[in-house]
Amino acid sequence: EPFMNENFISTNMALVCTELIRNTLPEAMPDENLFLSVKTDFSRLFRITEVDSWFLQRFMIKLCDAAGHSLSAQGKDNYLHSGWSGQFTDENSKQLLQQLMNLENPVADRPTRRKLAESLIAYMSEVVFPGKEVRTFNIMLDVLDA
Are 42 and 14 in contact (CB under 8 A)? Predict the structure, then answer.
C-alpha cells in the first residue's frame, strides 16, 4: 500500500509538470537538453521509494529558466526585472528559493513548501505563461493535504 500511495502522488506531480510544460513551451521547441532533463526528472520521480517533497518546486524553477524567465533570490528587487511583484519578499522564501536553486534540500514544513509552490505557480501564471491556468495544481495540493 505505501507504494500505491507514493506512485499516486508521483503520477499527480507528473500531471502537474506536464501541464506546466504545455503552458510554458511553444508547440515545437527543439530543446534536447530540456527534453533530457525532464526525462531524467520523470524517471527519478517514479523510481524513488519516498516522495521528494521539493520535486515540484525544483521542476518549476528549472522550467522558468528554460523558458527564459530565470528566478533570482538576490537583492531587494528580486523578480522586479520580470515585472512581477509577487510573494518572494520574505527572507524565509528567499532563502528556500536560493537553496533550491543551489540544488540543496531545504528543511521546511508542509505549509511552507505549499506557500512556495503557490508563489512559483503565481509567478509562472503571471510572467511565464500569462492568461493560462494550471488546473491540476490545486487538485494535487488537495491530494497532498488529504
Answer: yes
Contact assessment for residue 41 and residue 72, using Cβ atoms and an 8 Å cutoff: no
The residue among 63, 71, 70, 56 whose CA lies nearest residue 37 is: 63
Alpha helices in 30-145 (DSSP H): 32-47, 55-66, 91-101, 110-123, 135-145
Is the entire prediction scored with pTM above 0.85? no
Q: What is the pLDDT of residues 86-125, one digit of tens each?
A: 556 667 778 888 899 888 989 999 888 888 888 889 888 8
What is the C-alpha to C-alpha distance for residues 127 and 141, in angstroms, rounded to an integer? 22
Distance CA(26)–CA(124), nearest Å, equals 15
Residue with cell 494535487: 140
Q: Are 96 and 112 in contact (CB under 8 A)?
A: yes
Strand, helix or coil at 86?
Answer: coil
Whether 21 has a pLDDT exceeding 50, the answer reads: yes
The CA distances from residue 76 to 60, 68, 73, 81, 140, in Å, are: 22, 21, 9, 11, 32
